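Weekly puzzle thread! Below is a chain. First person to post its structure in token form gets bragging rights.
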Amino acid sequence: MNNFGAREVDVVVIGAGQAGLSSAYHLRRAGYQPGHGFVVLDHAPRPGGAWQFRWPSLTYGKVHGMHALPGMELTGADGARPSSEVIGEYFAAYERTFDLRVRRPVDVAEVREGEGGRLLVRASDGDWSTRALINATGTWDRPFWPRYPGQETFRGRQLHTANYPGPREFAGQRVLVVGGGASGTQHLMEIAEVAASTTWVTRRPPVFREGPFDERAGREAVALVEERVRLGLPPRSVVSVTGLPVTDAVRRAREQGVLDRLPMFDRVTPTGVAWDDGARGRAPRTVDVDVILWATGFRPAIDHLAPLKLRESGGGIRVEGTRAVRDARVHLVGYGPSASTIGANRAGRMAVRDIRELLAREPAAAAAPVA
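Winning reply:
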């Protein structure tokens, strides 16, 4: 496809969450200037990445493992304020401090092969022709909804973590929470304080982690995620292999029976869910509920990369470091092992280092600055 009418830059960064801002910071440090050196495209309406969409009851004090962006600490934050506000303001200040000039709201429809060895980024603000791409789109835009028989017959309310409003809306209701990750347990514990009843179901028994999570354990967890990515399989989150940290709140919830988990149900009924124990000569077990909250995670938001045919037969994109094995011009930051705040920072630096080496080997004529 030709690049006629497309604005030329050296690097396009898609996404302005932790991974995208880290990448933009390192591009700045490497001498790339916003406009003709790089551009950051973000589909969100304001700074904050996915944090801006978090539920109000997730205060900053409840956030586990929020690592500062490179070059600027987050200091003096009020732990009682919503994390969406605290981190949104921090990201906005970061963009101003380092003059990153994020363009928003801009939706990227697709990235495909252009002319002259360049990639063509088709976006809502027009086309961009780039020598390299940093994809930092995260997962928030692709909530995963499992499918179970009878799901469409349920007469109550179904919602996902992506549109969780906080616990108040569930006062006096019978609530089923599906999912054994950090979000599921957080939802469950705060809903239990106001709901008529709560039920928790997970596919696998949850693993609770006592004690500190040291550097060695972190490396081991990241290695497990990296192995899947190297094999071209869809990545699991780092959290999925670290276990759930046992806090004082978790201990209380376990003592009160809030975190008593049931195995995954077999089907959804009009009034709740059922386990087909009848196959073992017993009547099916059922639980009637008013709400099913699917805290079942997210998948990488990478459909716009489909024209580049980067996926392996296993369904994922195989990467070495952050570089897509099938296309050295494409780097995925915040994907797989770098899908954590500290991992995204390191990956942004790694991606920029590799891109500098790539572009140094393939000099290009200077492009006019973009307004």
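Puzzle host: Confirmed. Bonus trivia for everyone else. The helical segments are 18-29, 83-97, 182-191, 215-230, 239-242, 248-255, 341-361.
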